[in-house]
């Protein structure tokens, strides 16, 4: 469960710096090395949340880390090794199918990206930029987003592949197909019991799966001009996310400090996932390369903080 981070530039024989070592140990709920399969990662991080979504709880899965460490691969996967999106939806439909005699259910999904602080619908890219609105109950809605109802994981896979082709991707020095936007897949499960005596009880569970854009340093990605501005906006929204995680993870919980969810569209959209009624898993990715020591260090600190969040339900 531990990660030990060694500083590649450190000289073991340097006596003056012996007590100033930057070697650090982090402890997490679960750590995977390079041999872990998609299946293993899914079973130990996400599988336990799916039953909750079916019974009406909310769940969120984050992929966080520097650019080029495999976030999109873990979320989307390939045809032979499907990622978390597909495995989670497969499980969801199986679970719903098992209770189909007693309940009517409806599954709807939307897939969007947040690129340079504007929201685009990936299932219908021609709809232009969309607005975030808050409804009377305080939940965040996206005006004009396409919602697709489906009961079949293959159909969803097809839609996701189509949506992913619409994502803003650009080559950088760190990664040939770097995602320049945060992609959010939102699946809503509505269940209504068929028995007469329970009355019209409706349960709604929401599953958010968020593939964040990689945090990046311009020196590593060698970006200039437009790419550089993109990188700055990506880092700004990730900073806003960090600024929400910090007060939430302080002792005293979410009552002690003001949490600024309105800093970025990403944090407004994920308000419930971080501070509200949701079970949230953050999967942090790091690169084993010594050249990305700084990124790995910041990612581990970020994830370590997120681990301490305890929400007030």
Q: Alpha-carbon distance between the termini?
A: 28 Å
Q: What is the mean pLDDT?
A: 81
- SS element count, helices: 11
Helix content: 25-40%
Radius of gyration: 20 Å
Can you tell me the CATH class?
Alpha Beta
Overall, the morphology is globular
Query: What CATH architecture would you give?
Result: 3-Layer(aba) Sandwich
Description:
With 313 residues, the chain is α+β, with helices and mostly antiparallel strands. The protein has one domain: Kinesin motor domain (Kinesin, 3-Layer(aba) Sandwich), CATH 3.40.850. 35% of the residues lie in helices and 24% in strands. The protein is built from eleven helices and 14 strands. Strands 3, 4, 5, 6, 9, 12, 13 and 14 form an eight-stranded mixed β-sheet that branches. A hairpin with a 7-residue loop joins strand 10 and strand 11 (178-179). It is globular, with a radius of gyration of 20 Å. The two termini are 28 Å apart. 35% of the residues are buried.
Q: What are the salient characteristics of this protein?
A:
alpha+beta; 8-stranded mixed beta sheet; single chain; Kinesin; about 35% helix; about 325 residues
Helix-strand layout with pairing:
Layout: E1 2-5, E2 24-27, H1 38-45, H2 47-54, E3 58-64, H3 71-76, H4 84-98, E4 103-115, E5 118-121, E6 129-130, E7 132-134, E8 140-142, E9 148-149, H5 153-165, E10 169-170, E11 178-179, E12 182-193, E13 202-211, H6 218-221, H7 225-249, H8 253-256, H9 265-269, H10 271-275, E14 278-284, H11 293-307
Parallel strand pairs: 3-13, 3-14
Antiparallel strand pairs: 1-2, 4-5, 4-9, 4-12, 5-6, 7-8, 10-11, 12-13
GO molecular function: ATP binding; microtubule binding; microtubule motor activity
Family: Belongs to the TRAFAC class myosin-kinesin ATPase superfamily. Kinesin family.
Binding site for ATP: 65-72
């Amino acid at each position: 469960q531990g990660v030990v981070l060694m500083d590649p530039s450190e000289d073991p024989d340097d006596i003056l710096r012996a007590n100033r070592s930057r070697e650090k140990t982090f402890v997490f709920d679960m750590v995977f090395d390079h041999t872990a399969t998609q299946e293993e990662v899914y079973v130990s991080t996400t599988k336990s949340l799916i039953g909750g979504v079916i019974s009406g709880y909310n769940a969120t899965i984050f992929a966080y880390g520097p650019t080029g460490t495999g976030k999109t691969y873990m979320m989307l996967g390939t045809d032979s090794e499907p990622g978390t999106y597909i495995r989670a939806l497969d499980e969801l439909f199986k679970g719903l199918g098992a209770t189909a005699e007693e309940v009517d259910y409806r599954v709807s999904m939307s897939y969007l990206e947040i690129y340079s602080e504007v929201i685009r619908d990936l299932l219908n890219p021609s709809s232009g930029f969309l607005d975030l609105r808050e409804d009377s109950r305080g939940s965040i809605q996206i005006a004009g987003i396409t919602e697709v109802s489906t009961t079949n994981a293959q159909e969803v896979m097809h839609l996701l592949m189509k949506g992913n082709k619409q994502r803003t991707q650009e080559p950088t020095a760190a990664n040939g197909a770097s995602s320049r936007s945060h992609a959010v897949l939102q699946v809503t499960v509505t269940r209504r019991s068929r028995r007469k005596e329970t009355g019209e009880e409706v349960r709604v569970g929401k599953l958010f799966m968020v593939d964040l854009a990689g945090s990046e340093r311009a020196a590593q990605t060698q970006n200039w001009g437009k790419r550089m501005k993109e990188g700055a906006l990506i880092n700004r929204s990730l900073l806003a996310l960090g600024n929400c995680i910090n007060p939430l993870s302080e002792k005293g919980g979410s009552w002690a400090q003001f949490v600024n969810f309105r800093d970025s569209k990403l944090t407004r959209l994920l308000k419930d996932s971080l501070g509200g009624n949701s079970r949230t898993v953050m999967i942090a990715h790091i690169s084993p390369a010594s050249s990305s020591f700084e990124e790995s260090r910041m990612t581990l600190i970020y994830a370590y903080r997120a681990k301490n969040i305890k929400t007030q339900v």
